[in-house]
Amino acid sequence: MAGVNFPFVIGNWKMNLTPYESETVAKKIVAGLPPEGLPIEIGICPSYPAMERVQRVIAKTSITLGSQNMFWKEDGSYTGEVSVRMLKDMGCHYVIIGHSERRIHLRETDYEVNKKIRLALQYGLVPILCVGEKFEERQDGKRDVVIMEEVANALKGVDKFSQLIIAYEPVWVIGRGEAIEPNEACSAIGLIRYTLKDIYPQKTIDDKIKLLYGGSIDDKNITDFVDNEEINGVLVGGSSLKPEVYIGMINNLAKHVS
Ligand code: PEP
Could you report the per-residue pLDDT of 67-116, keeping only the tens digit for each? Predict the structure, then answer.
């Protein structure tokens, strides 16, 4: 894995590729990366059934495995769920928690998000907490209150961690094909930092928390976002499924930061 201060690019493949297709895409991404190390931290979150195959492909590279979700109990009779111990065993390093698609389609609540974050940290996984407002909330002038509440609720009782990642993802921009203006992302991320100041000392925020933007990022706009000091990286959906675009994003960012 790359250094903690390197910009972070993590792809969320959602429910899109079969294990075979995932392996093929992972191989193309690995083949497209330069052999020398990059000043970037890179991750991929495949579906559960594809994890093992993807992990085998990326094992000797600088790409790290993440999960799109986990359950909030350690073990037990929870049919269809996947536990944190299973993810650790698969070689996962990150876990996305509270993605808006889960909040919307699976009615995931802040309470569950908080339990998942606490359990992930207990087992040494790095949570990637997703927060962001829906279009109607934005129209009603509630962007700031939604972001602040989602952050504060998710982090209740979360006090010990070596790394935590928070992604600001305006829900209405996900999959839209057009990102928001970078300065708008900076203002939302600034608000997250402000909220965090009520919870953690400044040093913890500076040294241990990464703040990402997510929503219609591609190889053309990535540097406009990561260029800003406020933004430590990006969470990528659709563009991470296209190997040439994902590689393009990483290479453009590498040129930019080195
Ligand atoms: C996402 O779903 O987290 C996301 C950022 O998707 P996209 O890049 O496709 O907007």
Answer: 999 999 999 999 999 999 999 999 999 999 999 999 999 999 999 999 99
Q: How far is the CA of 215 from the centre of ligand 1 (A)?
A: 5
Q: Which amino acid is at 141?
A: G
- Check pLDDT > 90 for residue 2: no
**99, 101, 108, 137: the active-site residue:** 99
What is the rounded distance in angstroms from the CA atom of residue 52 to the CA atom of residue 247?
A: 22
Q: For 158-207, how does the pLDDT look when each residue is reduced to its tens digit (9 = 90+)?
A: 999 999 999 999 999 999 999 999 999 999 999 999 999 999 999 999 99
Strands 8-12 and 233-236, bridge-based pairing: parallel
Pick from 235, 240, 242, 249 the residue to mutate for probing ligand 1's pocket: most ligand atoms within 8 Å of its CB. 235
Q: Atom 7 of ligand 1 has which residue's CA nearest to it?
A: 237
Residue 159 has phi, psi (to 5 degrees) of -120, -25
Give CA torsion, residues 214, 57, 219, 131, to 10 deg: 0
Q: Which domains does the chain have, with CATH numbers?
A: 8-257 (3.20.20.70)
